[in-house]
């Protein structure tokens, strides 16, 4: 009994999915039960990487969604609209949906999930995060017995490629970005990648699954790598760290009053406080995520009782993403073979929400910090700064003075010094107060860089 | 509607499972639907890490299996019997089974799977390989669209702990083993770990799932670390490699005639040839598995089109293993909520076999090799050996001469030399011929070590 598949989009990922479906030999035999019935494309005349019966192609995507021969709708067109409307239309028609569209899910996930639950269909999104890495499925199903403490990941391949090259070559951000654009690793408009928005979309999705509650995407503090100085990458390396753009979601043992009032989910005892954020982060070289280079992605999940488990692999690309899309199609196809009553859902696969979550006020969260200060080059300045941090109640792990050269864009020139401080864990509000007190000192010229440290 | 759980065994893992079931808060809400109904223990009077209602405890395990209030039987007693019989009894009673027992599954997996398929129940085994790492589920479900090329893993924590310390400290195998036994990382009888049998059990299971066919466990060539010389670990390190006990299963593009005739599955065009083996292996330092230290496990799956994905985490321990057991219980519980007709199975979750596999004749497989030769210390010996390999048709990547000291147990003393050769990939039969020709040379005293290299 063949299962009809409809594809919305035949770009890189869509062609990858079609290639798998049209060559089932050697794959799970269920792939052979999947029949591609209709494909929406913008230009039917365009040459494609995959050979398809031209009669399958249509330009009106609603013809795919509405086709009674299509049982599962696969949305790989990208963008917010018409993707969102087509997904909702498929759900309304009682069809399960597979999508690789992280932007739609991060923004309209609640609306889509509610519609799917009401209609008794699945919306599966393995391809939306981590490319070919199985991470959605393990979070939903394999780790369900755990209390998740933290999910942290390198989930944007473009920035990891840039950071890897900055670290290896000591190159400046702008140079490597231009090169990455030439090589096709970065978009002509790289904003979503380098400013952290793409990673924020993805951590919103992962956190929602790990903690069972919806995450307010717009409230996630997001800092990209676009203002990162090569000098800080180099100093981090000298100190035994690697700089990575990390997306983090961690459980915050909050009293109700610390949840942000800006959040629509008013904080109560029954609301789980979460610290969710995206920022460049110093990782100790022995950290499992520190060895993830180039365009690879990796997600580290920490929970009780499992401890630390990590998922690693190619974060993008036609093949890996298509592998994830087909995984979702197979999951739905496998469940269909059970012959369960229409509308009945497996609660793990459906990933229904079961808890309220709220982002906590960032000033109450606790982190280690890396700070680079430009100072006068005077005897005793390192001692004065160390003392000032101590007076402000911030405990320091290391403090190192470098001779400031004129080479860096924040070098300051003129014989100043650079002091790099790595703190122990401290509440953000206290750290900010300390930093204000320190920059008020006459020998401190400016805070040239401030990064988080794991 | 609560789902009744029966536990066979309340040792480390069993207590870990009971601890999760008795503290559902903060875990997936489905955990709250699981009710522990009966637990088989050897000694009901023994003090336990977990507080259970003493009326749940019984000493006769058939009372657990036969209890009509028990819907899912969890076998965490270990050993071959009575575990196998109890699993079959549960299946016959129409109950799904969750087991962490790799030995039973590696040996009786086919019998158990056939019984489960006939009765329409699941036998799930996430905890049998890789402890808390979700690897069984991803192989069965998330990677089903791929043609798997290779599965390779560090899947025995004891040996990885020993090898990590040998590499870090330059210590001898025997010393580290004794220390590991003192610390509880190795059993009093370490044979199953250090001789590779445990890893062979596990790769038989992984290969069966990755390739969809049954693997003849007894036919897997298995070499442990118990004869590994600290000297080879040190030389490998100098040459940029790390020595790991690797379990590997890879697709072999065989002509029918190369499949071993010893295999019960006679080789035909429709039989997939596999090269499955366990042995100490030199990994280049940049290989994803090279950074896996201590008791951690990691499994690398390579397939088309996904590329390389890796799963990393704690390979043993009460918490991680219990996390995997509960994952399986939740999967069965989730499916039950669908209200499907009794006996209907999800083909992905059930992991029914769909292909015939046969191990290929080891002499036809291709590998890179590391060889350490003890030779006379004569001018030109390195050149003679290099030439001899070349004459025998074995291409060499590197050849290095070391001064043999008397320190190593194979040192030979008396001013001999050690020559370490790393070959390019070569068919095993040709490599063996070359080695025979080389040891016949008068300046070659003996082959002190021979290891595989990735």
Notes on the structure:
Two copies of one chain form a homodimer. The first copy, chain A, folds into three domains: 3-124, Rossmann fold, CATH 3.40.50; 143-314, Dihydrodipicolinate Reductase, domain 2; 366-453, Alpha-Beta Plaits, CATH 3.30.70.260. In chain A, α13 runs antiparallel to α14 (428-439). In chain A, strands 7, 8, 9, 10, 11, 12, 13, 14, 15, 16 and 17 form an eleven-stranded mixed beta sheet that branches. In chain A, strands 3-2-1-4-5-6 form a six-stranded parallel beta sheet, with helices on both faces. Chain A has helices at 12-21, 61-66, 83-92, 102-119, 136-142, 157-169, 173-183, 191-194, 197-211, 230-238, 318-336, 347-350, 381-391, 428-439, and strands at 3-8, 34-40, 57-58, 72-75, 96-99, 123-124, 147-154, 241-252, 271-284, 296-304, 307-314, 356-359, 366-375, 396-403, 417-423, 426-427, 444-453. In chain A, β5, α4 (102-119) and β6 (123-124) form a beta-alpha-beta unit. Mean pLDDT of chain A is 92; it is low at 255-267 and 406-413. In chain A, 33% of the residues lie in helices and 26% in strands. The radius of gyration of chain A is 24 Å and the shape is elongated. Chain A is built from 14 helices and 17 strands. Chain A has 454 residues and is α/β, with parallel strands linked by helices.
Task: Please summarize what this structure is.
Chain A has 454 residues and is of the alpha/beta class. Chain A has helices at 12-21, 61-66, 83-92, 102-119, 136-142, 157-169, 173-183, 191-194, 197-211, 230-238, 318-336, 347-350, 381-391, 428-439; strands spanning 3-8, 34-40, 57-58, 72-75, 96-99, 123-124, 147-154, 241-252, 271-284, 296-304, 307-314, 356-359, 366-375, 396-403, 417-423, 426-427, 444-453. In chain A, strand 10 (296-304) and strand 11 form a beta hairpin.
């Amino acid at each position: 009994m063949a299962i009809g598949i409809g594809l919305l989009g035949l770009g890189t990922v869509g062609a990858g999915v079609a290639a798998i479906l049209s060559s089932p030999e050697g794959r799970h035999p269920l792939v052979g039960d999947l029949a591609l019935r209709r494909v929406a494309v913008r230009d039917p005349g365009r040459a494609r990487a995959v050979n398809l019966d031209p009669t399958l192609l249509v330009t009106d995507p609603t013809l795919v969604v509405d086709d009674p021969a299509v049982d599962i709708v696969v949305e790989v067109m990208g963008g917010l609209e018409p993707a969102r409307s087509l997904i909702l239309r498929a759900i309304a028609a009682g069809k399960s949906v597979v999508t690789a569209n992280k932007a739609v899910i991060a923004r309209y996930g609640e609306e889509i999930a509610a519609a799917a639950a009401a209609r008794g269909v699945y919306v599966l999104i393995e391809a939306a995060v981590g490319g070919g890495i199985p991470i959605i499925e393990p979070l939903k199903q394999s780790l369900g017995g755990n209390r998740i403490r933290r999910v942290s990941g390198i989930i944007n391949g473009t920035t990891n490629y840039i950071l890897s090259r900055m670290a290896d070559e000591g190159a400046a951000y702008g140079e490597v970005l231009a090169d990455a654009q030439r090589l096709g690793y970065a978009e002509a408009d790289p904003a979503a990648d380098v400013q952290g928005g793409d990673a924020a979309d993805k951590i919103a999705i992962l956190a929602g699954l790990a903690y069972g509650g919806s995450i307010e995407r717009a409230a996630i503090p997001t800092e990209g790598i676009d203002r990162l100085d090569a000098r800080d990458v180099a100093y981090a390396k000298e100190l035994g760290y690697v700089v990575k753009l990390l997306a983090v979601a961690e459980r915050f043992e909050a009293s109700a009053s610390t949840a942000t009032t800006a959040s629509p989910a008013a904080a109560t005892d029954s609301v789980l406080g979460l610290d969710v954020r995206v920022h460049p982060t110093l990782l100790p070289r022995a950290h499992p995520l520190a060895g993830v280079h180039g365009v690879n992605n990796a997600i580290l999940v920490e929970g009780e009782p499992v401890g630390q488990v990590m998922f690693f692999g190619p974060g993008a690309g036609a093949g890996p993403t298509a592998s994830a899309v087909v995984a979702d199609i197979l999951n739905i196809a496998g469940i269909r073979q059970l012959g369960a009553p229409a509308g009945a859902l497996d609660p793990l696969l459906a990933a229904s929400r079961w808890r309220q979550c709220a982002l906590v006020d960032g000033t109450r969260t606790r982190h280690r910090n890396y700070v680079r200060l430009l100072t006068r080059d005077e005897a005793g300045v390192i001692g004065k700064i160390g003392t000032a941090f101590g007076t402000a109640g911030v405990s320091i792990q290391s403090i190192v003075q470098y001779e400031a050269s004129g080479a860096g864009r924040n070098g300051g020139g003129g014989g100043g010094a650079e002091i790099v401080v790595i703190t122990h864990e401290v509440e953000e509000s206290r750290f900010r107060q300390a930093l204000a007190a320190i920059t008020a000192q006459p020998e401190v010229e400016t805070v040239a860089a401030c990064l988080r440290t794991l």
